């Protein structure tokens, strides 16, 4: 009897590691499928096939619920983040007054987030260093030139780029680091006039630039996945150019409200 118990324990000990590997591979497969679905949603949104994209998002929801019901590794923070970004995309796609550029930006946000959760890949947000720091550099140049209109437009563009990768940052970067970065970005946004004319405000921009560089530089510089370049090239340029226009419109709208506060 004792030998039977020992034999059973040995069999379990031998099989258990394979069970863990099989479960991990199954979870990885589900996350890969969700990654592909988010990519398909982005394709459909770019093609302005919003009804098809909406149906794909519904299917994404079903698959995500299935994946999370069997997952042992997904945290509550991840669940909340994916659910929130998914809901943003759904709302924008179904909103008639939402612009094409905003729909693409939200779909890209989901795409980049799901790429973070997909195993064995270089996350797409890692390659956003150049466009973000470049845009921030244009913000500083606008201040040096005393060009208020350009400053507001460029900073709005920066905010849009930051919003696109913020959910991914939350999952991969230390919470204290992200909180400090987020607080500084919000401070600059809230006190734009001071940033334009005061040395303290300019120092905040320099610190923001430094913090962003530190975050990106701590990432291993591996070879990027080909699908990453598709997003950067085909979507990034659209977002940056069109959001510059959106930022300009937002700035002009704010100026109009200042002149007509009762309107």
From TrEMBL:
Residue ranges spanning the membrane: these are: 228-248
Question: Record's superkingdom?
Answer: Bacteria
Transmembrane helix recorded as keyword:
yes
Keyword Transmembrane: yes or no? yes
Which UniProt key words apply to this protein?
Membrane, Transmembrane, Transmembrane helix
InterPro entries, A to Z: Spore_YpjB (IPR014231)
- Protein name listed in UniProt: Sporulation protein YpjB
Q: Which organism is it from?
A: Cytobacillus stercorigallinarum
